[in-house]
Amino acid sequence: MNAGEGESSATTPLQLRGLEARSRLVLEAGLTRIDAHTRSRLNQARQAAVAAAARPSYLARIFGSLTSRALMPATGAAAAAVLVAAFMLSGGHHLTSSVADNNPASALDVLDLVTDDDAMNLMEENDSSFYEWAAAQGDNPGQGAAQGAGGETT
Amino acid sequence: MPATSRGGTLLNDTAEARSRALNQFLKSVELKAYKIAQAGLRHQDDALDAVQDAMLQLARAYANRPEEEWKPLFYRILENRIRDMQRRRTVRGRVMAWLPFRRDEDDEDLDPIAQAPSQDVPPVARLEIDEAMRALDAALEELPNRQREAFLLRNLEGLDVAQTAQAMGCSEGSVKTHYFRALQALRVKLGEFEL
Known about the structure:
Largest sheet of chain B: none
Oligomer: heterodimer
Shape of chain B: globular
CATH topology of the largest domain in chain B: Rna Polymerase Sigma Factor, Chain: A
Radius of gyration of chain A: 26 Å
Number of domains of chain A: 1
Number of strands of chain A: 0
Radius of gyration of chain B: 20 Å
Number of strands of chain B: 0
């Protein structure tokens, strides 16, 4: 069973935006309550991760030194030749065409919403408030929450 | 200065800048990531392990990717790790149920000073926040996993729909639906607290 089923009809987008903003405040306040022991362990984990990123793996060290000393000039020239040949053959056409393909995002977004299984469940449950909410919703959570919850936005 | 030495210095500078950026990024997400992991796993050590694994994997495999890709990648790794641990715990729970002698992991002695909360919040506000946090935590615990993930990634971490979809490994439509259901459920559960 999905939590909250059966009471959705009483929910308005404005109420949900207010809930978003207030729960965000509580969650952010909760972050300040994380204890010193946990903070210390997170700090250690972070330092270990940064050190791991700076240290190349064993294989990378072996192959890295080989390529840098002996193979770098030859492989670099070969790679550059391949790239130039590929660009000449394609006429550089596909490099620019992908920009134009990005525009119909909003249409795809609507299609995505309509064809989504969960969204179809909401439709079958006759939950029109979802579509009302989705239409009012911007890309960022709590967008417009200022009207509903005293202006707490990030 | 010889050319090779100048090149080496440049490489070192770049690597140092990368390390600083990675450190800064991980510092900016670590508390939220821990909170998200704790909500999913409900166990402090498991949550810390999940965050640590996600940090290491991001650093080892994706540190050279553009910085704007780090956040969705990091949360994708973390969510996968949380799901793995949830699955493993389910299996372990089934096995442990058959064993005659077992020790509850929660019985471990904890250092009360180390467990003390941070003192950043004034004492008067602390009680109200405590109550609201308890109510919200309890309500979040009852949410299905995907709804909780969508809610925390969007509302606590502030990921947009596309980034949340990338982190959760689902479509943007699914993110919207999970998030909406989570909001509805939380409103029903938290109504009496006026949260």
